[in-house]
Design a protein that fits this description.
Shape: globular
Radius of gyration: 24 Å
Helix content: 40-55%
Number of helices: 16
Distance between the termini: 56 Å
Order of helices and strands: HEHEHEHEHHHHHEHEHHHHEEHHEEEEE
Strand order of the largest sheet: 1-6-5-2-3-4
Strand content: 5-15%
């Protein structure tokens, strides 16, 4: 595809929050459209870097925004360079943190990296995967321990010499901590430098990141310049608001949709996203044209939820999840609905309702279960559970029944 010299293709521009530099449209070092056009003439793919620190085990839809953009580059013929930050994860990215992060062990990082790659589609057909692991030349998976573990002290000192304390304290997170008297460990200053050095090691043309990563991405440009490389472009994408419609999607806040959630749970959660966030979800998580969607907010929610669920599981499965969600919320058709199962094997009977919700994993704790029941959020076979201390005598009393929490979570109880 020929890229007009003064514009970006829609697949690239969609959802973009920031692009830097964005200067002279005819300069391949100042305009990404110009570098795309030059790369096409040269017959070479751009090298598009995305670094991930495997500090957890689950990827949610908020994370997937960056991977979707990386996949768009792959589908356009470019090379995705996915950097597993197995070395930098041991330091921990200080971005957004008000205190020094706990450092992880090598074993913890590698276990998390394995689950990340599986969730991204390693070993799966590209049609079903978030990233294309199949097409030759479209993906490099690198671990930054390849080049960072071998740095000796003179090289580390050389890296430290490329930045100043003033630059580091200009980083918003460091500035707040320093101003508030919160300690900043010296090794935390290394993190942006090491992430920046990743760009040198892989010779990146473009680096993807969230809007909170601008400092680190810009550091990569600075270091490439120090090493006499052509500098990368920083392409930043928005931070997705979570299901609460207020704070960013974060597992610690309980407002996420996981990539591996079952179709019914995924659809049910997404169709309840607040009106103010719908357009962002459509833009960042689907390929739908906003103007082609229903004007009615409720119908737009359903269309978005269906599209996102279909992107993970296929349209047939997504439509089944949509139908099941409708029948379950209406309190009918539970027997026929394809509801994820929850085992009663760990439940000690007789069991009180608050304990049951916790034991089968529908609530994180007994105290949360009590609160949810008292708030009227828990139902069994469509009937509201009124008393947290309601007692169930045996497995046979619950087997095959659907336990519901709010309008988003359903589990069929099995032995």
């Amino acid at each position: 595809m020929t890229v007009p010299p003064h514009s970006l293709p829609n697949w690239l521009a969609r959802g973009m929050a920031d692009l830097f530099p964005d200067g002279n449209p005819d300069d391949v070092d100042q305009a990404l459209a110009a570098r795309l056009a030059a790369a096409e003439l040269e017959g070479r793919p751009l090298r598009v870097k995305l670094g991930i620190d495997p500090t957890g085990s689950d990827i949610h839809l908020g994370h997937s925004i960056l991977f979707r953009k990386l996949r768009a580059f792959q589908d356009a013929g470019h090379t995705a360079v996915l950097i597993i930050g197995d070395f930098t994860a041991r330091i921990g990215d200080p971005t957004g943190k008000s205190a020094t992060r706990v450092q992880l062990t090598t074993e913890q990082v590698e276990a998390n990296a394995t689950t990340y790659l599986r969730q991204l589609g390693q070993g799966q057909p590209k049609e079903k995967a978030l990233l294309d692991f199949e097409t030759p030349g479209r993906l490099e998976v690198r671990r930054n321990s390849e080049w960072l573990e071998g740095l000796d002290l003179p090289q580390v000192i050389g890296l430290l010499g490329t930045a100043t304390v003033g630059q580091m304290l200009a980083k918003d997170d460091f500035a707040k901590r320093y101003g508030g008297g919160t300690p900043i460990a010296l090794h935390e200053f290394l993190y942006p430098l090491l992430q920046g050095y990743d760009s040198v090691a892989v010779d990146a043309d473009v680096e993807l990141g969230g809007t909170d990563q601008k400092f680190n991405v810009a550091m990569g440009r600075d270091l490439q310049r120090q090493f006499s490389q052509r500098t990368q472009f920083g392409l930043l994408l928005p931070i997705l608001v979570g299901l609460d419609g207020v704070q960013k999607m974060s597992k610690s806040l309980g407002n996420t949709v996981g990539l591996e959630e079952d179709p019914l749970s995924m659809y049910s959660k997404l169709e309840k996203v607040g009106d103010a966030a719908i357009n962002d979800y459509v833009m960042l998580l689907t390929d739908l044209a906003n103007e082609a969607l229903p004007a009615n907010p409720r119908e737009k929610q359903k269309a978005m939820a269906l599209a996102v669920t279909a992107s993970r599981y296929g349209m047939h499965v997504a439509q089944k999840a949509q139908a099941d969600a409708a029948t379950l919320v209406a309190g009918s058709g539970a027997a026929a609905a394809d509801v994820p199962e929850a085992s009663l094997s760990a439940v000690n009977f007789p069991a009180k309702a608050f304990y049951l919700l916790s034991a089968v994993g529908i609530c994180a704790s007994s105290s949360e279960a009590r609160r949810q029941i008292k708030g009227g959020a828990a139902r069994l076979e469509g009937e509201k559970i009124m008393d947290p201390n309601q007692e169930f005598g045996s497995v046979s009393e619950l087997e095959g029944k659907v336990l519901q929490l709010g309008k988003k979570t359903f589990r069929r109880l099995v032995p």
